[in-house]
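Example record for the data management plan.
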Amino acid sequence: MAKRELVLGGGCFWCLEAVFELLNGVEDVVSGYANGAMENPDYHSVCSGETGHAEVIKISYDDKIISSDDILRIFFDIHNPTTLNSQGADIGTQYRSVILYEDSDTKERAIRAKDEAQLNYRESIVTLIEPLEKFYLAEPYHQDYYRLNRTQGYCMAVITPKVERVKKRYETKIF
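Corresponding structural encoding:
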């Protein structure tokens, strides 16, 4: 086993977490905040848009089972990487599309994945590819949000369609 990690932001972290938890080879997904100016941010501070943090997920996975290329391909498929600082009704810099890397291999894979994904979009992809400066774990009530709240309105209207799309499109990658 070769454990790896990827930190991704593509709108609300609840949506991303729910999708990536489905994938075979993904060992853990946690929601958090990354690359802002404030130490130990909280949800309300990040939502102000003034801290500079992005809502992100940290995916821990076994790259012998699922590759970072597969994870990045799914990432570009499950959110709109052409909208600047927004996903649907979620608007603000904290909802930006971003891939945060810790090494040159991940950076190169992210650039390649973005270039490949661009072939599927008419508009330019605005996903940022930046070094991971700092990751902060989000509050406990944000962890496993969809699994614990799937009948809540936002989950049913926004997250469930993404989960169903991934189950259909990537059925060979699902547990």
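Summary line stored alongside the record: The beta strands are 3-10, 26-34, 54-62, 86-87, 90-91, 97-101, 128-131, 135-137.
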